[in-house]
Amino acid sequence: MPLAAGISDQLKEKCAVFGIFENKPGKYTGQESARLTFYGLWALQHRGQESSGIASSDGKDMYVHSAAGLVSTVYREEDLEQLPGHISIGHNRYSTSGGAEAYYNQPFVDHHRKIAYAHNGNLPDWSKLTEFLRERGINIDKMNDSGMMAMAIGCYMDDGLDMPAAIIKAYPLFTGVFSSVAMGLNTLVAFRDECGVRPLSIGTLGDGYVVASETCAFDTIGAKFLRDVEPGEMVVIDEKGLTSHQIVKPNLRLDIFELVYFARPDSLLLGKRVDIVRQELGREMAREFPIKADVIVPVPESGIPAAIGYSQTSGIPFEMALIKNRYIHRTFIRPTAQLRERDLKMKLNPVIELIKDQRVVLVDDSIVRGTTMRHLVAMVFEAGAKEVHLLISCPPVKYPDFYGINTPKQSELLSAYMTDEEVRDYVGATSLNFLSFDGMIGATGLPSSSFTTACFDGDYPVSIGNRAKEIKILKAGETLPRVSHTPVELANTRTT
Fold first, then answer.
1. Catalytic residue numbers?
2. Do 241 and 365 fall within a single domain?
3. For position 404, which CATH number holds?
4. pLDDT tens track of the chain, all 496 residues?
5. Partner of 58 for a Cys bridge, out of 85, 106, 337, 478, CB 3.0 to 4.6 A?
6. What is the DSSP string of 226-256?
7. Is there a contact between 431 and 291 (Cβ–Cβ < 8 Å)?
């Protein structure tokens, strides 16, 4: 979508997956698995706001409902009543590859082969998949990466393999990042790429099992966290219980942005409560950047935990001086050029009494293009702040993501072609500091080898194929040549 259609140029996660297997289907009304999936997807709404879908199985047939929009608008009572069965999988989407057309909505359901599939992640290299499918005579014109993955699994099922065996056979074709769920008539399967770049966890609910992109979904439906699906692992759940298959050797590299920004604060990742890690990011910033100021102000919602941590360590009071309108959701309305700045003001409004004549420390999680931050800093000054010291709880973002995040081209990333001082001048802050790489890693309490940090250092642990030609690895202090347009002009003319 054009940037102006949203209210922020922040990074967005692209998908959420959920699955549930009721081992005693007779215990429920017949629609319980789909209803629980609905609540699970609601808990995972932050990971995708473009479309949502649920597929279910009653052991004899498969049923599906999907549409564009938020979970709250996609499903009505009558929709859930048309999704019977003891197994369900669900998906919230924000475009990976392909477009926003309805035929990209997930889960993909193949009624002939009796399989449903949903995917969180992205395959930057389609070469193996496209070659395989073309050899099989498959028309891939209207398929994105997720659709091709589902089709490859179906092709191996045509060879006589059951769904789990077909997934193992197709696995080498999936060059990229995937945390996926698949469903047969009586089987639920969950599997991850060898690096586990996107999260995927297992929970228990009575005698059944649940899988979800984040553990916050378990809390919503009353399930108990069991463990993560390991990188390179496939978990098969049926009436006999849960079995594990380690398809490839694990090489854990969770995307650190899950901890910095994407995941819900109440989720658990790698045994760490996300909110606690984000508060520690703030404490690290307080140690690295002691600032003489009067008030700490977060950019809601993502900047709140880090701002709390900074306040607790520095002793500077914390105030929610930017108020978020909680009833503003993602909009597809394209405002005119004159109204683009109003888009942000519709979302956030300053409490003038908490800002006027104050030295303000403004805390946020990241800067991408910088257009939103430029307006935010101006808003705080307009509210009467004497100084605005901007703190970002991660290092500068200099490289695009190819693993399921909506980062723009490298040339559109502000820190890729501006020094920190130039970024400060562009956003209009009194001072600007980014948390150091070591500080960010230290806040997690885990080794750097546990994480994908490609957006900061250009180290892509999963092959990005020909997409590597789109980036330039920058030396310390080096930037890309200045683009011909200002970031504001880019925001008005480019699409993500």
1. 15
2. no
3. 3.40.50.2020
4. 222 223 345 555 569 999 999 986 545 444 589 999 999 999 999 999 899 999 999 999 999 999 999 999 999 999 999 999 999 999 999 754 444 455 578 999 999 999 999 999 999 999 999 999 999 999 988 888 899 999 999 999 999 999 999 999 999 999 999 999 999 999 999 999 999 999 999 999 999 999 999 999 999 999 999 999 999 999 999 999 999 999 999 999 999 999 999 999 999 999 999 999 999 999 999 999 999 999 999 999 889 999 999 999 999 999 999 999 876 655 444 444 455 455 666 789 999 999 999 999 999 999 999 988 999 999 999 999 999 999 999 999 999 999 988 777 999 999 999 999 999 999 999 999 999 999 999 999 999 999 999 999 999 999 999 999 999 999 998 999 976 544 544 443 332 2
5. 85
6. EEEPPTTEEEEEETTEEEEEE-S-----EET
7. yes
What CATH number does residue 176 fall under? 3.60.20.10
Answer yes or no: pTM beyond 0.70: yes
Residues 81 and 172 in one domain: yes
Cβ-Cβ contacts under 8 Å for 352 (sequence gap 6 or more): 383, 384
Pair (245, 355) in one structural domain: no
Within-domain flag for 239: yes
> What is the number of domains present in the chain?
2
Domain that holds residue 419: 275-445+475-493
What is the largest distance, in Å, between two alpha-carbon atoms of the chain?
73
E-state strands within 310-415: 322-324, 348-350, 359-364, 387-392
**Using only C-alpha atoms, what is the Rg of the chain?**
23
Return the ∠ at Cα 89 (arms to 80 and 326), rounded to 5°. 70
Residues 124 and 29 occupy one common structural domain:
yes
Whether residue 290 sits in one domain with residue 222? no
Residue 78 lies in a domain: yes
In a domain, 467, yes or no: no
Q: Are residues 34 and 174 in the same domain?
A: yes
Q: Which parts of 99-210 fold into alpha helices (H)?
A: 127-135, 145-158, 163-170
